[in-house]
Amino acid sequence: MRFSYKKKIEIPPDILNRLIELGQKALETRDVPVASVLLHEQEIIGEGFNTVFRNNAAGEHAEVNAVSDAIQKLGFEKFSTLNRDSLILISTFEPCLMCIGLCTNYNITNVFFLQEKERKDLMKERKLFMKYYFFRKQVAHNGEQIALFRMHSDYPKE
Prior knowledge:
Layout: H1 13-28, E1 35-40, E2 43-49, H2 52-55, H3 62-74, H4 76-81, E3 87-93, H5 97-105, E4 110-115, H6 119-135, H7 144-151
Parallel strand pairs: 3-4
Antiparallel strand pairs: 1-2, 1-3
């Protein structure tokens, strides 16, 4: 018996159909046909599909577009206060490292996908991440970023 850490969920037919419709929209502009929906309490609050080629924008993956759609509809403050246990991101394809970073930054821990990536592709992504991590370089500075942070009204004052 093979041990599996994965938890599978049943996707309601209306949500699955919406994912397929969104994926087909990506095909219209020759984008990779990946779609994503963000659910809160079982209701779609954001949806997206790949628009990288359509908009000539590197970051416009389905998951990014779904979260951005939710933030635009709800406003950032309301989105930030949503119960994260009731937030579910469903994508048609396993998210890339950028989209995993998005989920990490916005504390979206319930992430599901229809199609997983092949292990060789996962390993290639992880290798590129490690290459970045080990070869990253900080430049000499005089505290400019800290100064910018301190100008922000929400940055903690000392």
